Please model this.
Amino acid sequence: MGAGKSTVGAALAARSGVAARDTDTDVEEATGRTVADIFVTDGETSFRALEREAVAAALSGHDGVLSLGGGAVLDPDSRAGLAEYVASGGDVVFLRVGLADAVKRVGLGSTRPMLLGNVRGRIKTLLDERAPVYESVATHTVDTDGRSPEDVAAEIEELIAR
Model:
């Protein structure tokens, strides 16, 4: 959250001349509702099921840059799909963000459903809990703190070219 997944994904796709896709957007388009509305109305479990379907569909049917929601890799089926993607020669990039930059980007008055309550504390908890999972599925890790999306996209492009 706040790492720049959607923004960097779009910048990387533009640099590479391929399509960008975002699983949060896929869920919103499929349901006609925002992620926040799904969380509030139906709960996180319902959202995660929709997200799992979106990740599976995107991994099997998208041939460009794919941005996953921050919690997508917590699902074992999504991790297995990413592992298959990597085994077939794909790259998975973990955009690592520090607490200070994440809070600046997300904002302390955030309306994101995973941040209800103490925003700074909740972001720290999520970063601490999720970082090992992100690292376990990633083929590359790129730090985003203090960097523009274009700079991060350029580094990813270089890493993937290797």
Summary: The helical segments are 5-16, 23-31, 35-42, 44-61, 76-87, 99-106, 119-137, 149-161. The mean pLDDT is 88. The radius of gyration is 15 Å.
